[in-house]
Specification:
By secondary structure, the chain is an alpha+beta fold. It folds into 2 domains: about 80 residues, no CATH class; about 50 residues, DNA Binding (I), subunit A (Orthogonal Bundle), CATH 1.10.30. Helices cover about 15% and strands about 25% of the residues. It is built from 4 helices and 6 strands, in the order ββαββαββαα. The strands form 2 sheets. The chain has a 4-stranded mixed beta sheet, with helices on one face. The chain has a two-stranded antiparallel sheet with strand order 5-6. The radius of gyration is 21 Å and the shape is elongated.
């Protein structure tokens, strides 16, 4: 079972194991906001509710420059598994400006792409193919990208996570 950790200002910070969350609560570094009472954790001194959401007692400063690393899975997720050229189901990624021409592995240069469009495009640019991109590629943003584990959110977390 996983636990959502909220900063003192109620913004999501991380997803940790319930064991780590219990340690934070027992050391009085966090308080339980929501718990799963149906599955308590037993110890020699008593039982504890298994925390689902905890709130840190002190505010943790998060650097604004927290960058999201580029990955194949991330590009496909950002584009909704849809091809950036035809809108079909995507299973590969494509460099808008090909790597052979100096294209970088960046959020702004990568799009999800179906195998057919990727093979037809080859090492050409969309302008040379007279193609247009459905959306302009850009870095993802939001809580779901910064907090690892939130993409598989529990039902109890919904009120604490902003709409993505």
């Amino acid at each position: 079972m996983r636990t959502l950790v909220l900063n003192a200002g109620f913004e999501p910070l991380a997803v940790v194991s319930f064991k780590r969350a219990l340690v934070l609560v027992m050391n009085q570094k966090a308080t339980i906001i929501a718990a799963d009472a149906g599955h308590p954790v037993w110890s020699a001194s008593g039982s504890y509710a298994r925390p689902s959401v905890i709130l840190l007692t002190r505010y943790v400063r998060i650097p604004n420059s927290r960058l999201i690393p580029v990955s194949r899975r991330g590009v496909l997720r950002r584009d909704g598994q849809r091809c950036g050229y035809c809108g079909g189901a995507a299973n590969t990624i494509d460099h808008v400006l090909p790597r052979s021409r100096g294209g970088a592995d960046s959020w702004e240069n990568l799009v999800a792409c179906c195998l057919r469009c990727n093979n037809m495009k080859g090492d050409r640019t969309p302008a040379e193919m007279n193609w247009t991109l459905r959306v302009r590629p850009k870095p993802p943003h939001g809580t779901a990208w910064l907090v690892r584990g939130v993409e598989r959110a529990e039902a109890e977390w919904d009120e604490f996570l902003p709409a993505a």
